[in-house]
Design goal:
It is a single chain. This protein is mainly beta. Helices cover 6% and strands 29% of the residues. Strands 1, 2, 3, 4, 5, 6 and 7 form a 7-stranded mixed sheet that branches. The longest helix is centred in the middle third of the chain and has 7 residues.
Length: 108
């Protein structure tokens, strides 16, 4: 699926005076997502409308960004095969592969 060049998702429009870094693309569960240099994985996913980042090990309950500052560990995802990475503390890199984490995650 191609990502629209003008897609900014739920971000504040640039016309409002917001300056953005270089446009980047990464994938989340195989779907291409637009991001901008300087954004965290969590910020880019929230802007793309993605709220659920992982499911818990025992009940499978959905989890997402809660504290946004690396304290709660609710935003754990698998990044480029490495499980249990905090989405709110990891900056986007072009071509990064991010996947929902199921339970404790497993390296691929």
């Amino acid at each position: 699926m191609a990502v629209a060049e003008t897609s900014i998702g739920l971000r504040v429009p640039v016309a409002a005076g917001v300056e953005r870094g270089e446009r980047l693309t990464f994938t989340f569960d195989g779907e291409p997502i637009v991001a901008f240099r300087g954004e965290s994985v969590a910020a880019a996913l929230l802007a793309a409308g993605r709220r659920t980042l992982r499911s818990t090990a025992i009940t499978g309950a959905p989890r997402g960004v809660f504290c946004g500052m690396g304290v709660c560990f609710d935003c754990l995802v698998v990044i480029d095969g490495a499980p249990s990475r905090r989405a709110c503390m990891t900056f986007i890199a072009n071509g990064m592969r991010v996947e929902s984490q199921i339970g404790y995650g497993a390296a691929t």
